[in-house]
Amino acid sequence: MNLTQEDWVAQFEADENAVILDVRTEDETNDGIIANAILIDIHKGQGFIDEIEALDKSKNYYVYCRSGMRSAKACEIMNELGFENTYNLLGGIIEWDGEVVAP
After folding, report:
1. What interhelical angle do 69-80 and 46-53 show, nearest 10?
2. Would you please indicate which residues are annotated as catalytic (active-site) residues?
3. 59: nearest Cα among 38, 89, 34
4. Predicted confidence band of residue 59 (pLDDT cuts 50, 70, 90)
5. pLDDT attached to residue 84
């Protein structure tokens, strides 16, 4: 499910079962991440699948990347793997106007 930043943040903040997932490369995350995000690079191929499979499928995942394209793909993959609640941040971190912290 694609959410605008406003909806993504509002839903995340109200969600006691939420996990933030950053699917960018390590180089990209060096510029900063959304606080408490788990970093799993979608470009790792099978490594990405393996790390995603190890996550708790009962949680709700708020996924983002640089522009929203890779995170949308990550949400699709996660849904195929049995994750019921994945939320893509439209516009990604380049349109993010919230706080960013060092990884």
Report:
1. 60
2. 65
3. 38
4. very high
5. 96
- The answer to pTM > 0.90 is yes
Non-local CB neighbours of 84 within 8 Å, separated by 6+ positions: 57
Terminal Cα distance for the chain, rounded: 26
pLDDT digits (tens, 9 = 90+) for 67-98: 999 999 999 999 999 999 999 999 999 999 99
Question: Is residue 60 a contact partner of residue 87, using CB atoms and an 8 Å limit?
Answer: yes
CA distance 82 to 46: 16
Question: In the chain, which ranges are E strands?
Answer: 2-3, 18-22, 38-39, 60-64, 86-89
Instruction: Match 């995350």 to its residue by tokens.
Output: 29
Pairing mode, if any, of strands 86-89 and 2-3?
parallel
